[in-house]
Design goal:
The structure holds two protein chains of two kinds. By secondary structure, chain A is an all-beta fold. Helix content of chain A is 0%, strand content 51%. Classes of the chains: A mainly beta, B mainly beta.
Chain lengths: 119, 112
């Protein structure tokens, strides 16, 4: 059974850097074909894909946010870390991490964590 | 890059059938698989259709997916509507060459 859980601050100030950790179990990020993605959802709005990290350490980012995002992995700890710089109130959202399946859908999701950007 | 466009909302009565479209702005809809998610309020999304028309185990046969090359769109069809189907639905495509992901803007399904 695959499980994922996001952790990190619930409140950040404008211009600060957000760091979120996704801790997972039930799969290994060293196994070929595996990926972990980050998706966010502002209150009442649509899902927005942020980025993906693959088993081979390839990283892909949303073109619109690429300059602000970094995704890393710690295979030994079963963790993936998302860093987003220069946070703004429009970045207020629930942030999800999810397992990318071999069929290229996100077949398991974390519960999400609400991050509010406010001074 | 391309966009996936969904209607903002659809509605239907219990027992009826509704379809939600997902139209690709450029390139062929058949070029990359389309997946569909159901998201209930306060919950994470869950796959209801993957690879255009495949149902994960546990998803009722009332849910089906298809693609239509003539309209360059994918569709999620829900038959025998139940009140529990009321939720937001999102389409998603994976771009193999760029290894990136695109989501549609989501559709709110209301079961009247």
């Amino acid at each position: 059974q695959i499980t994922l859980k996001e952790s990190g601050p619930t409140l950040v100030k404008p211009t600060q850097t957000l760091t979120l950790t996704c801790t997972f179990s039930g799969f290994s990020l060293s196994t070929g074909g595996v990926g972990v993605g980050w998706i966010r959802q502002p209150p009442g709005k649509a899902l927005e894909w942020l980025g993906l990290i693959y088993w081979d350490d390839d990283k892909r980012y949303s073109p619109s946010l690429k300059s602000r995002l970094t995704i890393t992995k710690d295979t030994s700890k079963n963790q993936v870390v998302l860093t987003m710089t220069n946070m703004d109130p429009v970045d207020t959202a629930t942030y999800f991490c999810a397992h990318l399946s071999r069929t290229t859908d996100f077949d398991s999701w974390g519960q999400g964590t609400l991050v509010t950007v406010s001074s | 890059n391309y966009m996936l466009t969904q209607p903002h909302s659809v509605s239907g009565s219990p027992g009826k059938t509704v379809s939600i479209s997902c139209t690709r702005s450029s390139g062929s809809i058949a070029s990359n698989y389309v997946h569909w998610y159901q998201q209930r309020p306060g919950s994470a999304p869950a796959t209801v259709i993957y690879e255009d028309n495949q149902r994960p185990s546990g998803v009722p046969a009332r849910f089906s997916g298809s693609i239509d090359s003539s309209s360059n769109s994918a569709s999620l069809t829900i038959s025998g509507l139940k009140t529990e189907d009321e939720a937001d639905y999102y389409c998603q495509s994976y771009h193999g060459s760029s290894r990136g992901v695109i989501f549609g803007g989501g559709t709110k399904l209301t079961v009247l």
